[in-house]
Design brief:
heterodimer, A: Rossmann fold, 7-stranded parallel sheet, B: alpha/beta, 10 helices, globular
């Protein structure tokens, strides 16, 4: 398991702490860059679904966004959002550079990173090692983390593992009901024991989308919004069921309500929304 | 004139208000003029309406997504074929919940499809409340209250009760004598066929009573249809 940062800055093999390394600087940029990481260590909790919903939400709000898919080499997110998604390996220096070094210079200021299963903590470690988290601390860049939870205790353990990296982030716990997961509200003691370990910006609940609608969007291989617009992946008119499109549209609308509730757009714009 | 297709939603939150009878009558009204018509029976267990018109009506399960697809996707096709939905009272909440969730009314309007709610009244306050709830949800959707005097008599206060419903028009289905009503139960009896050639075995008294019953009902349907055509006539705007 990757080392976790402590309050005392860790030193790397050259004897430099992350803080002593030159952190990427974004000072002077007209628009503050924002990085939104969607991740979980557990698989099958719907990370990519949430990343897809997030990209649709941002596009609907005219927020230009680029996306990074860390599921190498195939990339599920890229399949649904090919035009804006790049597949990266977050443990590779050159791919880290693709994301971090371009934050200040890229025309698109919002980056969504869909972290593959098991990759959240290494990804956060990489962000720590590159000095990205220092830049977040200096308020040069906005960092939002959507931590997608499963129903098991393992997911709760992840919260404790992630906690050291998110002091300066807007850290949201995401309960994804797309796959009918039931969560642990039934046991307030367990819930409190884990959740008191970290200060979060709040919780986001992703409602359930019926299986048939979900499956049809998968088969169509398009973004949810493209499916709702009754278009195929190549932009040509499609013949998707109106009923299924209606369900997807309603589901998207509920998710948008959740993102509006946490004032995601204000967070991205660098305003204090909380 | 702009192409329009009507979707008639015969419904009531309560059983035994004459919903299936209206669906049947409306279907026969169109068939009697050799006009195309398509029906949907949302009672998957006892699809009486579908049994009466095997060539024109299909049973769908409104609680099942595949059933919803075969129902709503078809209703949205603007092919000028009137479509009639017999909403089983137990499907009522699910049906209108789905209508709301998938944005059916808005999409229907975009496609030139005109939904018409045929709300079947009964004397209960909940019936009135549910009609108002539908009107509040879709205030621009035409609502016609249907008073089936045989299935759900309103009594002497009928006019007063109906006045409280949020509808601009009403259909009245008169009660039938029990002996005549029994003749309607035969699945072989086609009302549209009956008007052209009554079954020879049918009593003359029953024939006369059925014709007398049907004539004002079909007149109301025709009147409604003409009114809608006038409303849709662009040269009269």
């Amino acid at each position: 398991m990757a080392q976790r940062p402590s309050k005392d800055a860790k030193r790397d093999d050259r004897g430099l702490s992350a803080r002593e390394k030159a952190p990427p600087t974004f000072v002077g940029q007209r628009v503050k860059p924002a990085v939104i990481v969607v991740g979980a260590d557990k698989g099958g909790v719907g990370k990519t679904t949430i990343a897809r919903a997030l990209l649709d939400y941002l596009a609907a709000n005219n927020v230009l966004t680029r996306a990074f898919d860390t599921e190498t080499p195939r990339g599920t997110l890229r399949r649904f959002h090919p035009d804006q998604t790049t597949i990266v390996d977050l443990t590779s220096t050159s791919d880290q550079m693709k994301i971090i070094d371009t934050l200040g210079t890229a025309e698109v200021k919002v980056s969504v990173v869909d972290v593959r299963a098991g990759g959240l903590e290494p990804a956060l470690q990489a962000l720590q090692d590159t000095g990205f988290l220092d830049a977040v601390r200096e308020r040069e860049v906005t960092f939002i983390l959507f931590h997608v939870l499963g129903s098991s205790i393992a997911s709760l353990d992840e919260i404790a593992e992630v906690a050291p990296y998110v002091d300066d982030a807007d850290y949201f716990l995401v309960k994804n009901h797309v796959n009918d997961t039931t969560f642990f509200e039934w046991d307030p003691v367990t819930h409190r024991r884990y959740f008191e370990k970290v200060e979060t910006a709040g919780e986001v609940t992703i409602p359930k989308l019926n299986e048939l609608s979900y499956e049809q969007v998968e088969l169509a291989g398009t973004s949810f919004s493209t499916f709702v617009a009754n278009r195929a992946a190549d932009g040509e008119p499609a013949d998707h069921s109106f009923v299924l499109r209606g369900y997807v549209r309603t589901w998207q609308s509920k998710i948008a309500d959740e993102f509006d509730r946490i004032r995601l757009l204000e967070l991205i714009a660098g305003r204090e929304a909380r | 004139m702009r192409r329009r297709s009507f979707v008639f939603v015969a419904c009531s939150p309560h059983p035994r208000t004459g919903v299936s009878t209206t669906a049947r009558l409306l279907t026969d009204f169109h068939l009697s003029r050799h006009a195309p018509v398509e029906g949907f029976d949302t009672d998957p267990h006892a699809s009486r309406y579908a049994e009466l018109f095997p060539a024109h009506v299909r049973a769908v399960d409104a609680a099942d997504i595949k059933g919803q697809i075969s129902l709503f996707d078809r209703l949205l096709v603007n092919d000028e074929t009137p479509k009639i939905v017999d909403v089983w009272s137990r499907s009522y909440d699910r049906f209108f919940g789905t209508v709301r969730e998938i944005g059916f009314v808005e999409e229907a309007r975009r496609n030139g499809v005109e939904p018409v709610i045929l709300f079947h009244v009964d004397p209960s306050q909940t019936s009135l409340a549910r009609a108002h709830a539908l009107h509040a949800a879709w205030s621009d959707v035409a609502m016609v209250v249907v008073n089936n005097e045989g299935a759900s008599p309103l009594g002497a206060a009928a006019h007063e009760i109906l006045a409280h419903y949020p509808a601009s028009r009403k259909f009245v289905i008169a009660p039938l004598d029990a002996a005549v009503a029994r003749s309607l139960e035969s699945p072989e009896l086609s009302l549209s066929g009956f008007l052209v050639a009554p079954p020879p075995a049918m009593s003359i008294v029953v024939r006369a009573a059925l014709k007398a019953w049907l004539a004002p009902i079909f007149t109301q349907f025709r009147s409604f249809e003409l009114r809608q055509q006038l409303n849709g006539a662009e040269f009269l705007r």
